[in-house]
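[Meeting: bench + compute handoff]

Bench side (C.D.) handed over the final construct sequence. Compute side (W.E.) agreed to return the predicted structure before the next meeting so the bench team could plan truncations. Sequence as handed over:
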Amino acid sequence: MSEKIITHKIRRRDLLAMAGTGVVAVAGISLFAGEAKADMAGVNKAMMKSIGDKKAKSGRVTLELPQIAENGNTVPVTVEVESPMTDKDYVKALHIYAEGNPSPDVASFRFTPESGKARVSTRMRMIKSQNIVAVAEMSDGSVYMGKKAIKVTIGGCGG
């Protein structure tokens, strides 16, 4: 008894096309935007990494950003901390967090008394309407926090 094995000729071009289709399908899965995972708990966790267990007081930190961002791709954000910026009283660091983005950490800035002013302007991407939180570490160890809400009509991170 003998078995007959049937073989099919596959052209090189067809094999490459099938392989290419599989690669595109696998790569396409990773292109879909995931859900934003940050929230105030995520911001608090990120703050713990930056300032430890210090309690943030309100005041001294002013956030300037639009109430409504029509496009979340590039939203202007300015943060200023009220400080004399002298050798004895100055802002050591300023941290910016976004409650609604996939990662709450946005930026950190370092200052010295020679900085003259504790003011930064930047642009950030926002996936959805959310609160922006700014935390200032002072030279005496105190911490101040400011928070402001922004409404995003078209998300800049695929939303």
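W.E. noted at the follow-up: Strands lie at 57-58, 61-64, 68-69, 75-81, 91-98, 105-110, 118-124, 130-138, 143-152. C.D. will use this when planning the next construct.
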